[in-house]
Every structure is written in C-alpha cells, then in structure tokens.
Amino acid sequence: MSDQKLFERIGGRDAIEAAVEIFYKKVLKDDRIKHFFDSTDMKDMLSKQKKFLAYAFGGPVKYDGKNMRDAHAHLVQRGMTDLHFDAVAENLVETLQELEVPEGMVQEVVDIAESVRGDVLGK
Q1: Which of 14, 43, 87, 89 shows the greatest Cβ crowding within 10 Å of its Cβ?
Q2: What is the per-residue pLDDT across 14-54, written as a single tens digit (0 to 9) for each?
Q3: CB burial class (10 A; 0-12, 13-18, 19+) of residue 10?
Q4: 6-120 architecture in CATH?
C-alpha cells in the first residue's frame, strides 16, 4: 500500500467535493432515508460533509464540527437504525463506484464509515 493518505490517493479535495455532491443527490432520492433530511440546510450539510471526509481521509483539513454521536443524536431520536446506516453506506459505495474509485479504496472508505457506526447510532 502507498504511504500516501487516502485523501491523496482518492484524488484530493476535488474528488471529495464531486463525491459528496453525487452522494447527496442519491441520498435525497432514497425513500429509505431522504426523510431524515427534510429540514436540513443542504448547502451547510454539503460543506460540513466535504470537510469531514477530507479530515477522515487524512487530508490537510482541520475538522472542528460536532463528534459523530452528538451530530447524529437528533436522527437517532427520529428513529435512525442500522437499516438506515446501511442505506447511507450503499449510496456511498454506489457513488464511489460511479466515480470509478478502485475497489480497494472503496473498501477503505467503507471501513472508515463502519468505524463510526456505533457513535452515529448512539450505541
């Protein structure tokens, strides 16, 4: 494996920005999860998600947002479960595959997402 961070190997800021834009278009069309975003300021959400992913993938970004548990607590109160988390993960994988990200890197992204499942779901 390369010594480069996932951030660099996946294509840097431009790749993350493109992925987040496509990802949320999918999420907002997904009947399983779109209702969780009904009252969300999507411009703000996209900005936060881009920063978070750049940080999570080892990029030169300081993430100073809420931790995963606090950021998603309101969604857990609205009934978010593992099934919803899985739907989000599916949309993420589909987005990365659409962008022709190599399977090994897709798996790295999935592993990062899975590492925060418990916090996102308040477990």
Answers
A1: 87
A2: 999 999 999 999 999 999 999 999 999 999 999 999 998 99
A3: buried
A4: Orthogonal Bundle (1.10)
